[in-house]
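Progress note, sequence design subtask.
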């Protein structure tokens, strides 16, 4: 199939006709200068970006298909403008062997809606006792390059050092869930005056910051790569900024919900807003927005965490940690970063496609919008407004924190290797 995108705004700037053929960008012509394709899309006033890349997605399969499957999660990703996602390892069984990561990868290929790249576990069973088969997973058909025990911190410093040393052999990266376990036992929300008022055990910022500080020093010591998952505090931003200024090979991500929601919403006692790490203060939100704008934070990653209804329709203390994110991520970034002037569209492409692809060592994603490049693309209507209805989401779960919220901007079309997965805002 050949595709013609008429009058698309490259990075929100110059209007061009984009010709797609054989899975690649075959031509960029002045408006009206391209011939028709098998599929013609009126892209006037729509922003064209490279397809989004998520470094942090929970697809739950294998083992928790009641919450999400690779098929439904891939559908949510495509509708959110993503052409590649990294599927986290805390499945059942854990993705700690070549066999499991290959199963996840092949099911992603079968779904055909976005490229699914499995994340391998750092330790066997996420138990933090011995390293998993890192080399075997890296050499498998899934070609794993990102390893994480997400949901569980690799809190043993010796084990973390060994993991950092091991992945150097194949240019891998350890993605750390920064949570000092002894400081967060039974924690329910951000530690502060509000947690005392609400009677919920607090989760101190230092529990995140202490692990980040240790791990950037370890990465520097062994000359390896470390990636910080879902950074959420002012102190964390400053530690990463300090490390980067000294040339330490550290990258970091922030979630959409940490860009827009604060701990104040815990006053509702609604477990939809219970997340790990917890929602922080307004000052923390301002700090992570500033860090994303100046490049200290490299990427927006959804931490898409679907749960079955019963795990969220309960009292706060019994509720599971996590929120949906794939279908709303770009809208949150538009609202908090584009509409406020903190990022332009090239900045959005950099933080949601280029840098995530580079961190994950993905060859065909996050590429420039140039002739000859893979046609992994997303078209966005920046002026659109839409209201989140959980029943209309593609995810199998409904635990979005944005119920009934008006969102800014909407994905109109997504192309995976030149093939439309979403057109007119609907799955093809």
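Output:
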């Amino acid at each position: 199939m050949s595709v013609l995108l008429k009058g698309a705004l490259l990075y929100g700037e110059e209007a061009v006709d984009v010709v797609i053929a054989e899975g690649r960008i075959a031509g960029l012509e002045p408006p009206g200068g391209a011939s028709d394709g098998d599929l013609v899309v009126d892209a006037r006033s729509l922003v064209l970006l490279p397809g989004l890349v998520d470094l942090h997605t929970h697809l739950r399969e294998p083992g928790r298909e009641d919450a999400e499957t690779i098929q439904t999660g891939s559908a949510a990703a495509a509708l959110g403008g993503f052409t590649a996602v990294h599927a986290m390892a805390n499945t059942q069984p854990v993705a700690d062997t070549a066999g499991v990561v290959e199963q996840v990868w092949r099911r992603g290929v079968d779904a055909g809606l976005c490229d699914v790249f499995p994340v391998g576990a750092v330790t066997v069973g996420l138990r933090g006792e011995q390293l998993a088969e890192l080399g075997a997973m890296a050499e498998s058909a899934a070609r794993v390059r990102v390893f994480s025990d997400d949901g569980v911190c690799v809190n043993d410093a010796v084990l973390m050092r060994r993991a950092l040393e091991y992945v150097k052999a194949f240019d891998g990266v350890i993605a750390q869930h920064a949570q000092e376990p002894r400081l967060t036992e039974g924690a329910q929300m951000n530690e502060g005056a509000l947690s005392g008022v609400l009677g919920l055990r607090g989760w101190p910022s230092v529990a995140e910051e202490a692990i980040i500080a240790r791990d950037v020093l370890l990465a520097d010591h062994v000359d390896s790569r470390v990636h910080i998952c879902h950074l959420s505090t002012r102190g964390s931003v400053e530690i990463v900024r300090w490390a980067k200024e000294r040339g330490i090979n550290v990258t970091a991500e922030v979630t959409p919900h940490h860009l827009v929601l604060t701990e104040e919403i815990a006053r509702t006692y609604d477990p939809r807003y219970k997340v790990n790490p917890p929602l922080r203060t307004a000052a923390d939100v301002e700090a992570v927005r500033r860090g994303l704008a100046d490049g200290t934070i490299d990427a927006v990653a959804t931490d898409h965490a679907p749960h079955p209804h019963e795990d969220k329709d309960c009292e706060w203390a019994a509720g599971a940690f996590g929120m949906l994110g794939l279908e709303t991520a770009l809208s949150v970034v538009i609202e908090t970063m584009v509409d406020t002037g903190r990022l332009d569209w090239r900045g959005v492409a950099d933080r949601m496609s280029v840098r995530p692809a580079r961190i994950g060592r993905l060859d065909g994603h996050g590429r420039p919008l140039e002739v000859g490049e893979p046609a992994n693309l997303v078209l966005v209507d920046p002026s659109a407004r839409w209201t989140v209805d959980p029943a209309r989401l593609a995810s199998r779960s409904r635990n979005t924190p944005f119920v009934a919220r008006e969102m800014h901007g909407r994905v109109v079309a997504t192309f995976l290797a030149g093939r439309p997965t979403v057109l007119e805002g609907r799955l093809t």
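The two ends are 14 Å apart (CA to CA). Work on this subtask will continue into the next period as scheduled.
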